[in-house]
Please model this.
Amino acid sequence: MQPSNPNPVDRDPQGRYPQGGLAFQHRDLTGIAQLARHEILYLLDEAEQWVELNRQSHKRAEVLSGLTIINAFFENSTRTLLSFEIAGKRLGADVVNMHAATSSVKKGETLIDTAMTLNAMRADAIVIRHGSSGAVRLIAEKVDCPVLNAGDGQHEHPTQALLDALTMRHALKLAPGSDLNGLKVTICGDILHSRVARSNILSLTALGADISVCAPPALMPADIEAMGVRVFHDFDAALQGAQIVMMLRLQQERMQGQFIPSPREYRYLYGLTLDRLAKADAGALVMHPGPMNRGIEIDSQVADHPTRSLITDQVERGVAIRMACLDVLTRRTRRVPGWNALSGDAA
Model:
């Protein structure tokens, strides 16, 4: 099934957004921090048509036919890479995946040289995942096409935050255009090293949610209160009244030194079990960006719960959000009416 109304100019009869390209004025998507509230809502609403398409037997549109998308992943990934690849192909684009393990970066090529090489190939959009914070923005400054951040160091993971917000809206049966005003969300785990936590805090607070973060003191960023969240070190206390519980894994690959006494003690203090989930709001829903460490930050009975877990829903919404981002960011290239030029910040 093709989207019933593929013209983005005509898809907002209620006038919730500025017209055409004014609804989303950025060339790139390097982080949630660059977005206004209405731009976050615009991307969420644009994803709705792709949620519906992805549930049909024929899951292909030709919106990006003739365009080339490069997924340049300098850091290992499974679900994010697959999600972007599926998103591009379902929109009709030619999709090329570049893995760092087989790239010239392993031979000593600089990041800027790699960016210049990718730019010379005349891609229409580049999706970047990199282990260093700020690397995606650096590449975006060196290339001529839109760049999407698929995760950079401990900085941001914007499409994960967008898909999480979309998942919450669907689970709560909120209409398109709705924000998350007053929703109580508790994020627990390795907050210090988590780009997912940072992007979610930025996104959810912009949408009006009430955010609590919980972690051992060694895994809690200094001055995180400045982001407008409540800070807890006691997980049971953090769960009081929570309607959404988002668990994060311990990112051992980013840790240098001893941040927790042992996985067993961490599970005892910060693992989400069914008994602990009962301390949250009645019917509280559970999320996890993956990959999960079952039996450490989350038990299988919780992760696989048939009515409380939204984890597989997050994966489904991820494809739709990435389709929306690829669609929106390439509209100027495709000369979609009303999207002929950037009207504001081109970041």
Notes: The first strand starts at residue 68 and ends at 73. The two ends are 34 Å apart (CA to CA). Residues 343-347 have pLDDT under 50 and may be disordered.
